[in-house]
Structures are given as structure tokens and as C-alpha cells.
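re the bet — no i am not wrong, look at it urself. input seq straight from the record:
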Amino acid sequence: MSGTASKGVAKPLVALATATALGFSPAVHANNACSTAAQVGADLWKEYDDVVKNVGCVGVTGAAVVGTAGVGLLQSQKIYSKCMTVADDADQATRNMISNWNDMVGNNWAHIGPRSLPLGETQKGTVTSRGTRLYITPAPVTGALHLNLEKVKFKGKTTVSVCTFGPGSDPTDHNVDSNEIWSFTIDPGPQNIDKTWSKTFPAAYGHLVAVTFKGKSVAKSMRYELRAESEPVSAVVIDGSAGSGSTNYTIEGGGAIEQVARKIGDIDVTIQGSDKVSGNRAEGAVGAGADGFLVAGELPRITLENPANARILVNGQPYNTVVIDGSAGSGSTSYTITGGGDIRQVKGSLAGQNVTVQANDNISGDRAKGAVGGGLDGFIVLGELPTVTLENPDNAKVLVNGEPYHTVVIAGAEASGTTGYTIHSGGRIQQVSGSLAGYQVSIQSGDKVSGTTATGQVAGGNDGFVVYGDKPEVKLDNAGNAVVYINGKKM
């Protein structure tokens, strides 16, 4: 067998020192398909553990997850989350693993002859007769993994197996767990020369990945080109425990999707028999439980049939959709979205609406501004629910997470005296504090929200609410002692 990398000759891996010399005994848990690379994976996790401690992104006894980083990792990988999610640390750790590649000494890999599989490089080689060729990433993959394999020449039959290796249940014990995630046979003969096999694996995130070729034809060869690349990955949780009923959901518009059954962040997610994943689309339903997915590529579009019965988390952050529907009015209006989190404008389908991006739309941090006439603008907000303000409320309607969105301000500061109030609505009511529709609002101890009704009292201050569903009705006990604004319009 022979093999080269397109960026120069790829030297065979020289083995690590023996497990005994390193002072540990890797506990290798591998199925038969992954057994060839299992020892290499165990040794590499030990080396990675040493490297990242020198980089400083993990302590001797592990480090806490930084913010929401690493929510898509297995529990056993969490101590390395900063090393995999903070760009500078991840790059430095990978560079150090690659530079140590040929300095690893010992004889425990001599019979395997593994080769490095660095991301973004094309590996070229030939599997001869019944020989074996093994490639493995030199460090854990810091995103989704995309593999592309092409049969270039010759007629030999070859089997291909792709395995992931995680650090096992306790990475401090330097054990390793394996999982075969893809396998197929390259048939013999010339008819499939130039054929390619391509697949993306979101759940490879945080794992070492090995590709093993095994020749199955005596005196025949198969020449190939293999390329591995990393893509962004998002961890999506549909959490039904946040509501009192059930809801169907769809996830689409991103890249490849893999459903997982484990813990994402601090939420246990499961797989139900009715859940379906096909390419870049997933659909299912949640009641009191939670479903979880890893999605490669762009941020996906997520829709709940009954938004009140579940919450959506993406990379640990609440996921909200905002649609400004200018087709609902007879004129135009400018709008402002503020106070949520990371805002991303999108075009195409969002929450069942067809939205576009206009030249005058502008996003800066957690603030978006634009205008609509007869069309619709759409945004995804990662973080808290934003505040949406329309300059001309009669000329558009706002949908948040697929539900009609209304703001209510009881402005006691614009009158003298005290008044109680009652808000009735056909949907959910949420009291807010801070800025709402251009007013500073606060929450007092006597204010109450129960289902679709809110009650309270103002005396020189302002109370504010966001209402989902039908336009609310507001009644004041003393009408002259406050002013009511719904969607920014004085009532």
C-alpha cells in the first residue's frame, strides 16, 4: 500500500510510548469494526489530555463548561469544552497535537501503521490486495465532520468503516468508547471509477474519527482520494417540560441532522418511535419530555405547532423567531427589535411565513431595524424574548414564535393618582421589566399574572406586558389616572 497527502507526503504515525511507560493503561471499549483503531484512539486521548493542560484551557482535574459552550458534547467530554469551543484554544490544541504526531514514540502501533487525517487536506493512497489502511484525526473534531471519498483508479474490492472515539465515561481514566457511524463496500471493477461517497456527521463533534480501508481482492488494488472537513454544529433541544400540553415540531433549513439520546446541557433528551429524521429535516412531538438534535451547517429553522407547550434551546440559548408582517396593513412602518440576544435575519421560510431581506434592514448586536410595506421580514433571536416596536402599529402585525405579539403599557407616569387595572387576553401574558415600546416599565409585588389575565396597580410608574394571541382588552379602575398603550398606540 502507498499513500500521500495533497499538501505533501503524509508520514506514517510513529507510535506513542507504550501504555506502561506513560503510566496508564487505556481501557479500550471497541466493537469489532472499530478495533483496529481503538488503541490509537485511546493513546491519542491521553496525549490530548496532556496537550490541553499545557495549553491552559483545562485544569488538572478538569474545567467547568464556559457559558453555553460545549452543550452538544457528551458528559465525558465536558472537561475539554473550552478547548473545543473557544477558537484560539481549539486551534492551539489541534496544532500541538499535529506537531507532536511524529514525536510519539514506542512500538504499540507498529503493526497498525496509522496515518494522520488532518481536516481540510486531501489524502491520496492505494489499498493493495488484502491490505489495510487506517486514517485518524490527530485531535477531536471541533464541529460536525464531513467526509468525501472518491474511487480514482483500479479494480479492487474494498470495505470502508468510519468510527468515532470518545474519551469514555471517565476521561481521567484514559478509557475510550467507540462507535461505528458509517460502513460500506466499494465494489470491484472499473464501472465505479470516479464514484464518490459523501456524508456529514454532526455527532462526530468532540470525537476522534478513524477511517479504515480493508482490501478484499487478491492481487488487485483500489486507488482513492479521501478528504475530511469540519462544519459548524448546533445543539437543538425541544423541551416539552416547559409547557402543560404537547406539540409537534419541525426542524429544517440547516445541514445534516442527527437525533441523539443523552444529556444536552443539563437536559436529558430521548428518541421516540414517532420521531423522524431525513437529510436536513426532522419532525416529531414532545409532551413532558425533551428531544435533542445536532445540526450541521447553518442555523436551522424550527417551528412548533403549539408554541405555548414547549421551549426551544439552541446551544443552550432560548430560540425565538420574529416576523414583521407588512401585508397585514395598508401602508408601511419602520420597526425596531431590541433587548433579546444574538439576532440573525433570514430569508425564505420562517415560522410558516415567507420572509425576505431588504437593503435598508440593519442588524447590530442585539438590535435590528428595518421597514416593511407589503412584505415580511424575519429574524431568529438567540437569547431572551426581544421587544418589538412598530412606528405605525396599524400597518403591520408582529409574530413571535408563530404567535401574534402585542405590547401593553399601563402608563401611570403620564397621569396623577392611582388606578388598578385588568388585562384580558386570548393567549399568554408575560410581564416584563426594563424597556418596552419606548417606556421604562417595572414589576411590583402586587402585580399578578394568571393564565390569560393580569392584574395590578400603577401610581406614578409604568407597568408593561407582552401578550401572545388575540389583541388584549385593558380595563382601568380609574380611567383618568393612567394611559394605556397597546402596540405603541394610545387607546
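see?? The chain has a mean pLDDT of 85. told u. also The radius of gyration is 28 Å. so pay up
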